[in-house]
């Protein structure tokens, strides 16, 4: 008997449980359905259509209209499929949200005092960042987990403090880029990335605001944005952006973090907090300036004033003081985004408790200001402004790193000779200039070389040694003539020539440098030498050796081993009769056939008339040298060109 009764009881409990669960599920479905319908104007229209079909179906059944009944039944029977298709995005987002929602958000696990502290820290940090015009993006996790976004940032996992928040966003620090995500009362990470919104926003909203709106579209997070450009503070939630002042921010955060009826508010507030609550209570009158004026008129009439009252006046006068500066606070609507205004202008540092807290936090809390009983409105204002100035001056953010101004090469006075240099070369020199110390040493050496070289060249010129060279060239060798000039040492063929006038210590390198120097000083090699004996006017067109100019007549042959160089005549010959392109470490030149007949008919006055070094290549090698960059180890073989080459000017 007892067992039977128990069984009944168990069955009935099961039935009751089943009913409750059934109702709960239906209730949940209805709740979300209504939520979707209410938040989406498109769904409202569709639900109106469905309701109309239901009504038509009912009326048709009542009147016995068979065809209409059949038609409306078809609609209703197949309608659910249509609903699934039409509402596919909404259904998906609901399911996603369900999957990611926490039953209890971390904030809800905080105690009243912790919530209150969190609000204070957030407000303080935000307003300090705003005052300093430091851009910031701070997201508060709600029911929807932000773990996916935390993974994109740098984990921090530290208690939220205004100091830490303001430090994170200082632009010279590595973590300032991106968003801070707060879970409960902890900073979970910094530098997180949020998918930006695709909405068409006014141009004043850049990437940061887009990111803030973006995250609010896909999660229920509340995000605070501080504009680097204007210092304006905005909140984004549910795809909307709202520009707020300090008071509105505090209210908003209280609502989000502490809920409507919070533990904090249920706890008997301290006198200071009571003052904030009273002062920050929503005002019916929309224009804050109006309130200021009205109250300002009333207040001086008060005969008794305590410190609380004075503080309230500080706030109100501060509002007035900054009202003019904040002109662009009108309400605008951008697509689905509502930007509310006018922003209630209340300057940031006038909350008594927050003020004291801020000062304490930054170690700047000073002894209380003298409490005077002002005689007139002017006295109050003067006192107020002074207090505000003191307070503003006392709170300091970590210093913003001065961003270096973009540096450009300083404009130098250009002499006529320098001006003749081709632009390309000047630029390359500017960019690639070696250290000054090195340059001085090099140029000193080069001058010496030039002098020596000029003396030697003149000696050669006088001695007419090249007659014999010409004779030697009429050997069976034909085609190209090459001489090695780019190696570390002058190869034997050249050494022979060198021995006829030029000092044997002279290396190909030195010759090259000397030649480069001559080019740079606006002369050709020959002119440099002529100038030694009889100074010549600078020929403007002679400086035709831009670094990028490819002189196709200059010839470079790919690396090859010297073939019995010592036994060859003064200039090594090459039988290569094909043109080809050499590429040595990116330096290219072309091998070109030289007519031997031409070689013989020309008059060779000195060594430079015979040796055509590719100036382009030469410059680049010299540049590598001066920059201490290793030049190609190879010895390039350059063609000899007859004396009537253009650049040399010799005939
Ligand atoms: N998708 C994103 N996720 C997180 N942070 C972002 C994202 N996009 C930009 N930011 C942050 O915003 C900064 C760039 O802001 P930008 O100047 O473009 O924004 P803004 O909306 O014009 O704001 P401001 O008024 O501060 O200039 C970046 O340095 C970065 O810190």
UniProtKB/TrEMBL annotation:
The lineage of its organism: Bacteria, Bacillati, Bacillota, Erysipelotrichia, Erysipelotrichales. The chain crosses the membrane at residues 15-34, 46-63. It comes from the Bacteria. InterPro entries: CdaA, CdaA_N, DisA, DNA_integrity_DisA_N_sf, DNA_integrity_scan_DisA_N. It catalyses: 2 ATP = 3',3'-c-di-AMP + 2 diphosphate. The keyword Nucleotidyltransferase applies. Belongs to the adenylate cyclase family. DacA/CdaA subfamily. Signal peptide: none annotated. This is Diadenylate cyclase. NCBIfam families: diadenylate cyclase CdaA. GO terms for biological process: cAMP biosynthetic process. Probably a homodimer. Catalyzes the condensation of 2 ATP molecules into cyclic di-AMP (c-di-AMP), a second messenger used to regulate differing processes in different bacteria. Residues 88-248 form the DAC domain. HAMAP family: DacA. It is an enzyme of class 2 (transferase). GO terms for molecular function: adenylate cyclase activity; ATP binding; diadenylate cyclase activity. PANTHER family: DIADENYLATE CYCLASE. Keywords: ATP-binding, Cell membrane, Membrane, Nucleotide-binding, Nucleotidyltransferase, Transferase, Transmembrane, Transmembrane helix. Residues 393-412 are annotated as: Disordered. Its EC number is 2.7.7.85.
């Amino acid at each position: 008997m007892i067992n039977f009764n128990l069984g009944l009881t168990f069955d009935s409990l099961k039935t009751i449980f089943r009913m409750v669960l059934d109702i709960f599920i239906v209730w949940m479905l209805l709740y979300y359905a209504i939520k979707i319908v209410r938040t989406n104007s498109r769904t409202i229209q569709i639900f109106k259509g469905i309701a109309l079909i239901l009504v038509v179906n009912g009326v048709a059944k009542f009147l016995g209209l068979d065809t209409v009944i059949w038609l409306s039944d078809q609609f209703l029977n197949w309608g659910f499929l249509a609903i699934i298709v039409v509402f596919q995005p909404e259904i998906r987002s609901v399911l996603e949200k369900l999957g990611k929602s926490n039953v209890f958000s971390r904030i809800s696990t905080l105690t009243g005092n912790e919530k209150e502290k969190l609000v204070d820290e957030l407000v303080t940090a935000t307003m300090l960042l705003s005052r300093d015009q430091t851009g910031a993006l701070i997201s508060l996790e709600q029911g929807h987990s932000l773990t996916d976004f935390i993974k994109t940032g740098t984990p921090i996992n530290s208690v939220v403090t205004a100091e830490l928040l303001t430090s994170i966003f200082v632009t010279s620090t590595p973590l300032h880029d991106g968003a801070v995500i707060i879970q409960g009362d902890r900073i979970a990470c910094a530098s997180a990335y949020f998918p930006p919104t695709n909405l068409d926003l006014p141009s004043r909203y850049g990437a940061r605001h887009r990111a803030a709106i973006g995250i609010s579209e896909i999660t229920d997070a509340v995000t605070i944005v501080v504009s680097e450009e204007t210092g304006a503070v905005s909140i984004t939630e549910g795809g909307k952006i709202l520009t707020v002042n300090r008071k509105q921010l505090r209210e908003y955060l209280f609502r989000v973090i502490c809920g409507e009826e919070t533990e904090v508010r249920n706890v008997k507030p301290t006198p200071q907090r009571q003052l904030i609550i009273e002062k920050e209570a929503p005002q019916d009158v929309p224009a804050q300036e109006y309130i200021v004026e009205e109250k300002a008129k009333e207040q001086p009439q008060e005969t008794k004033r305590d410190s609380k009252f004075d503080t309230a006046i500080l706030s109100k006068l501060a509002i007035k003081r900054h009202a003019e500066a904040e002109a662009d606070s009108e309400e605008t609507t951008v697509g689905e985004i509502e930007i509310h205004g006018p922003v209630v202008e209340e300057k940031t540092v006038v909350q008594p408790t927050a003020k004291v807290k801020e000062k304490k936090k930054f170690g700047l809390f000073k002894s209380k200001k003298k409490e005077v009983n002002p005689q007139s409105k002017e006295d109050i204002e003067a006192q107020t402004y002074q207090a505000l100035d003191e307070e503003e001056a006392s709170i300091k953010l970590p210093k913003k790193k001065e961003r270096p101004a973009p540096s450009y090469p300083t404009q130098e006075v250009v002499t006529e000779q320098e001006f003749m240099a081709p632009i390309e070369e000047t630029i390359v020199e500017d960019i690639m200039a070696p250290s000054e110390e090195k340059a001085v040493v090099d140029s000193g050496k080069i001058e010496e070389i030039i002098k020596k070289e000029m003396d030697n060249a003149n000696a050669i010129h006088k001695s007419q040694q090249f007659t014999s060279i010409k004779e030697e060239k009429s050997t069976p060798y034909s085609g190209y003539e090459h001489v090695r000039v780019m190696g570390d040492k002058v190869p034997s063929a050249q050494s022979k020539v060198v021995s006829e006038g030029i000092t044997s210590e002279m290396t190909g390198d030195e010759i090259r440098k000397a030649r480069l120097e001559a080019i740079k000083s606006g002369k050709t090699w020959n002119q440099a030498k002529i100038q030694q004996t009889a100074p010549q006017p600078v020929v403007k067109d002679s400086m035709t050796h831009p670094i990028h100019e490819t002189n196709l007549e200059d010839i470079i042959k790919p690396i090859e081993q010297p073939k019995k160089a010592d036994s060859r005549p003064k200039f090594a010959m090459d039988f290569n009769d094909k043109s080809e392109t050499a590429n040595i470490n990116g330096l290219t030149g072309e091998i070109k056939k030289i007519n031997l007949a031409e070689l013989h008919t020309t008059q060779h006055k000195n060594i430079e008339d015979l040796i055509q070094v590719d100036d382009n290549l030469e410059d680049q090698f010299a540049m590598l040298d001066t920059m201490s960059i290793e030049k190609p180890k190879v010895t390039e073989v350059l063609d000899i060109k007859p004396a009537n080459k253009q650049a040399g000017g010799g005939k």
